[in-house]
Design brief:
The structure is a homodimer. In chain A, 21% of the residues lie in helices and 35% in strands. By secondary structure, chain A is of the alpha+beta class. In chain A, strand 10 (161-168) and strand 11 form a beta hairpin. Strand 11 of chain A pairs antiparallel with strand 11 (173-178) of chain B, so a sheet runs across the interface.
């Protein structure tokens, strides 16, 4: 196997040199004729795939474990969807939860220097949603804010919801409406797909009051 | 005066050296006791100001002439507000005008490289509005779009209106509402004040169809 191979420089059978690596085309041919089960078969995935397609599928397999959805922390927790909420409540106690479809997500001290994340939970329709505001420098010297909503649920469940983020000042209003991502995709996936409200520091200041930014968050169910 | 002074190196009266420049504190004292009329007195400004405040006021005086509002052109036309529309119709014939409070501003080929401006006119409530979409690189390697609406009218008149810009795709919607600027302030003032909808190239692609971006523009009158 891969681990043993690294410790060998001679063939254990014929004592011939094993350097350079020599492809075993015959065995590759056999392998490409065989379908392998996904490594998450034990948690429910029934797919079988060619060895060339396995890694790509396993990276997004819906039966893979859920990672801790908290952005900006180095938490390496993994577990089932059912265990995510209790993990958050025990390991990330500082996250506030608000009840209701229509709440205000208050991000305090948006002028804090460097990359900062603001996180809170919203609970409605029998589900928990994670609200995230991220400040980061995508290109040097130019800080931007990224706001998005993720469902603590599967990708399929997320399709049933819509969210709206609204910033409003005395004379301006900025609104973003979209479907939430599932926490099975991470915040960084939502950001890199532009599936979020993006705004500059100058726009943030237009809406902030004393360095605090209130974002109106409304969650609704999609019409079937 | 300033022009003559530059041609003199000796005092025309006593032939003494005029270098270095010597402040005439006595005359400065006299000047600061006198109020001067604004240089736009002949077009209606009745303000009189201390010489130290004159340049600042004259840069924003509401009686100063209007410049050509077209962004990205090197047109150096100046004239009265009443003459702006006929200037645009004669000198910038390629600008389309649409009638109505609710129109679609279609920006074609948003993938064109470099800094690009899209401009059109919207006519409603007996006024003309200029719709501008600007693509530019505020920070290196990071292009952004800036969309705004300006009234062909005074700053005072602009306060009576609101505009809404809306981008919508199959699953996303981005909306911006604000009061239009007057063309007496330029597009670059609106952009530097963040009085505009700002979005990244990635967001533009989310809403664009085949490289063309449709922006719904709705203009309304403010409730008194």
């Amino acid at each position: 196997c891969k681990q043993c191979r690294q410790q060998l420089s001679l063939c254990p059978t014929c004592r011939g040199s094993l350097t350079p690596n020599i492809r075993n085309l015959a065995m590759e041919k056999v392998a490409s004729a065989v379908l392998f089960p996904c490594k998450y078969a034990t948690t429910g995935c029934s797919l079988t795939l060619h060895h060339t397609e396995k890694p790509k599928h396993e990276a997004i397999c819906e039966y893979r474990p859920y990672s801790c959805p908290c952005p900006g922390t180095s938490c390496d927790w993994e577990g089932s969807l059912e265990a995510v909420m209790s993990h958050l409540m025990h390991a990330h106690k500082s996250i506030t939860t608000l009840q209701g479809e229509d709440i205000i997500f208050l991000a305090t001290d948006i002028n804090l220097p460097g990359a900062v994340d603001w996180v809170m939970m919203q609970s409605c329709f029998g589900h928990h949603f994670m609200l995230v505001l991220k400040k980061q420098e995508k290109c040097e010297g130019h800080q931007q804010f990224f706001a998005t909503v993720l469902l603590i649920g599967t990708r399929k469940q997320a399709e049933n919801f819509q969210y709206r983020l609204e910033l409003h000042g005395s004379c301006h209003r900025l609104t973003w409406e979209a479907s939430p991502c599932s926490i099975h995709d991470s915040v960084s996936v939502a950001i890199s797909n532009s599936n979020c409200l993006v705004f500059d520091t100058a726009t943030a200041h237009l809406f902030a009051d004393n360095g605090n930014l209130g974002i109106n968050v409304t969650i609704s169910m999609c019409c079937p």
